[in-house]
Predict the structure.
Amino acid sequence: MFRAYLLACCLLLGLITTAHAQRKGDLFIRNGTVLTVTNGTLENTDILIRNGKIAAIGQNLKVPEGVEVIDATGMYVMPGIIDAHSHIAISNVNEATNPVTAEVSVGDVLNPYDIRLYRALAGGVTISHVMHGSANVIGGQNETIRHRYGETDPDALRMEGAPRTIKFALGENPTRVHGRGHNVPPLSRMGVEFIIRDAFHKARRYMEAWERYEQERKRNPRAVPPPYNERLEVLADILRGNILIHCHSYRADEILMLMRVLKDFGIQRVVFQHANEAFKVAPELAAFGAMASVFSDWWAYKFEVYYSTAYNAAILTRNGVITSINSDSPELNRHLYHEAAKTMKYGGLTEDEALALITINPARQLGIEDRVGSIEVGKDADLAIFSAHPLSIYAVCKKTIVDGIVRFDADRDPDDMRLQVDPERPVELAIHWGDHQHGHRCLEGIDLIEFLTETLQSEWQ
């Protein structure tokens, strides 16, 4: 009897675990205007979702028994928005103790209780690329997360099977944090290049040492392996092409510098983040196969970002560079569809090209384009439903769907969606404009007062 009870408990636990790991939804979206992004606009169209996947797209589809129906008549259905540069849902951003900290990962500090996940859902955002900060030349590893708000297990946020990525940073952030802040390299832009080259040379020697050991072990089972080094393991995986670089950058000269360094080491996959001067080297980016994730119209918030243009995304797109628009902000991420719309004014992009900047293009940059980023049969059911065309300033996100599950519903939006409430703590503001520009978190964990004072002093000098 005890065995039967124990077996039943194990089976129940297994079912609960499986349900948690594979929780997907069934939905039927009726009669919406479907913005597929990759296959044009479909009027008066239905979408059938089964087990979290898009099972059928067409007019007058039959509703399976027991499947919830959402009437999207007069509304617009688009792929879930993807933010390629975010710092939400993590408890730490920077490990600023060394110019190279490839061994750390923000995936280890995911916070499913972060209310900003829900606020992002309210703006139609279903996936965020949660990044390490920009204090280091080679920072920590990033994590691609799904906005499964309501889950309390941090692992439930991870997008299963998403390729690994890592954060690099060029320019003023690492030179000030380390060179001026701690009197260690890099102090200059040429020092930044040295740090990257030196790290890759060490990783290459580490790879070669392990390759020799593997060969030797075939002849001698008692061969002694080289010392294991987690930092060099990660760097070696970059050299092998197993990790995609996402690099904080602004100036055209340093963008060219990194492409030359990567070419020397045979690395082909890179996304330049921010990249305010990327428009100056758009043909070179296209020739290398590099991608760019930019702001729509942020600049002049520090010295190295004075030279920029709102035409950046359009110029890059017209030159064949896969381009996205990101937020780097827990506030702007709710308005990425507005940011994308600006490219129709500044550069004359089409509706589909503008929408691609926040859907299929960031999916390509994260290596998940076969699963999300467009509305196609077989893809994951990450969708957003808007009251009007999402590129209209009058559009309001009505529902946001992740894995076929409605995670945000404007018509059923409670006053308080926090999952964890401390009665002693004051209610957090949706956005707090503090000392640091734009409210983004790339330098969280650094003494910003000291950092900004030093910045102003150096610029006046």
